[in-house]
Amino acid sequence: MSIPIxxxxxxxxxxxxxxxxxxxxxxxxxxxxxxxxxxxGTIHVIKELASxxxxxxxxxxxxxxxxxxxxxxxxxxxxxxxxxxxxxxxIMTDLMNILKLCTYKSNVFYIKHEGMESDDIIASWIDxxxxxxxxxxxxxxxxxxxxxTHGNYHWFRSFSEPEVxxxxxxxxxxxxxxxxxxxxxxxxxxxxSDGIPSSVPxxxxxxxxxxxxxxxxxxxxxxxxxxGYPGIISGGDIWRNMERNLKVIExxxxxxxxxxxxxxxxxxxxxxxxxxxxxxxxxxxxx
Length: 287
Fold this sequence. Notes:
Blueprint: E1 3-9, H1 10-20, E2 25-27, E3 33-35, H2 37-50, E4 55-60, H3 65-70, H4 85-88, H5 95-102, E5 108-112, H6 118-128, E6 135-140, E7 154-156, H7 166-174, H8 184-189, H9 205-213, H10 220-227, H11 237-249, H12 268-277
Parallel strand pairs: 1-4, 1-6, 4-5, 6-7
Antiparallel strand pairs: 2-3
Helix pairs in contact: 1-2
């Protein structure tokens, strides 16, 4: 019998609920207002998922140093300061407290693995579904990068909307008749939201779609040969740019038995104190 598991991109979840519950806040002793919607929304939805699934796993970001080493400007320019304490508040300050409240439920766990972003953790679990059908995997995320890994899983872009048909989504967004996004698409196109430049400027979309459809198991020499640009040699600018982008964009996948499922044990009284700190009064803390 399969074990239904919910796997959540936790950073996405936090930022999603900060935006959704932007009017929910806490006030410190000096009367300064700080956001609390990310706490409120997250603990409520995780509690709801815990009632639906055998296990809920929260995928937590760690700094992927190897990406910054090859592209120092990776994810640069995010969260520019505004001078407003509410807008500038770093919600990851509350990460451990939110994890404590979420993992108070006995079937909720989290994974944080050194050197791996949440995307890499989820990609590793998705990859594992190709050889292990003992786990029925339900993934909640909104990052297209995770779609670069082929696997057998259910995908949700929202906690309140139906499962997304991956083939239909990728066809509509990229014109690809596939159920996963080959890594070559972003290697060539780059990703401005992450500060990743294009490696092959003005490359025709029609040709890129064709190459993506043929790219399973292929490497950079194959792709460079297919590009057909005259004068391209190993070590040239385009080659180096593609190698750089591949190192940044390609998911880091490891066997999932290397991950440790963790919980943060807190007492009932400690949990109540945390809820009071965030001025959340309508949440029932139970196992």
